[in-house]
Design brief:
heterodimer; A: about 120 residues; seven-stranded mixed sheet; about 0% helix; B: about 110 residues; mainly beta; five-stranded antiparallel sheet; 11 strands
Chain lengths: ~120, ~110
């Protein structure tokens, strides 16, 4: 069974541009989570989608946005890129949320560099 | 104060040593992950637990819900165990299934 996949592996953009990152969850998983790991910082929760809806978002500005498609894959869009957006962006997926908690499985990440 | 705190931040061991990494959290949780991150960034979930103890090979994870504390143990450590180990708490109810991460423990095992 294929794991969580992300594309591209690496992405280089310049300040002010837009970046689009993609995530395909494990087959059968409906929840997709996005996390950011900036250099020297810990992992931080960005966004959570389930069944096509945004369920929760972390403490990030509105220029971080995303969506989830009917096939449960997801896109993360970052507009008006700033230098500090350079980070590893990780996607995770799980079965639908609720009790008991369903384990999240992580993709390999997309490394975004903003010049 | 972070909601999830790990100790130590850095740990150097000799091959074969027994290793313990600690994680304390201040919020109510549904479960707790122990994650492993190798250079290059990929993250692997080692354990997900909500009570008691779990064991996979040389790795053991325990959690004490009342004390809000979890530990990851590595027995007979090996250089290939060198990685960053991260604990992540799963929020309850209103925060849904979002993970709150500790800052990670950089483990280096020397041959």
């Amino acid at each position: 069974e294929a794991g969580v996949t992300q594309s591209p592996t690496h992405l280089i953009k310049t300040r002010g541009q837009q970046a689009t990152l993609r995530c395909s969850p494990i087959s059968g998983h409906t929840s997709v989570y996005w996390y950011q790991q900036a250099l020297g910082l810990g992992l931080q929760f960005l966004l959570w989608y389930d069944e096509g809806e945004e369920r929760n978002r972390g403490n990030f500005p509105p220029r971080f946005s995303g969506r989830q498609f009917p096939n449960y894959s997801s896109e993360l869009n970052v507009n008006a890129l700033e230098l500090e957006d350079s980070a590893l962006y990780l996607c995770a997926s799980s079965l639908d949320f609720g009790e008991p908690y369903n384990e999240q499985f992580f993709g390999p990440g997309t490394r975004l560099t903003v010049l | 104060k972070n909601e999830v705190e790990q100790s130590p931040q850095n740990l150097t061991a000799q091959e074969g040593e027994f290793i313990t990494i600690n994680c304390s959290y201040s919020v109510g949780i549904s479960a707790l992950h122990w994650l492993q991150q190798h250079p290059g960034g990929g993250i692997v979930s080692l354990f997900m637990l909500s009570s008691g103890k779990k064991k996979h090979g040389r790795l053991i994870a325990t959690i004490n819900i009342q004390e809000k504390h979890s530990s990851l143990h590595i027995t007979a450590s090996h250089p290939r165990d060198s990685a960053v180990y991260i604990c992540a708490a799963v929020g309850q109810e209103t925060s849904g299934s979002r993970l709150t991460f500790g800052e990670g423990t950089q483990l280096t095992v020397n041959p």
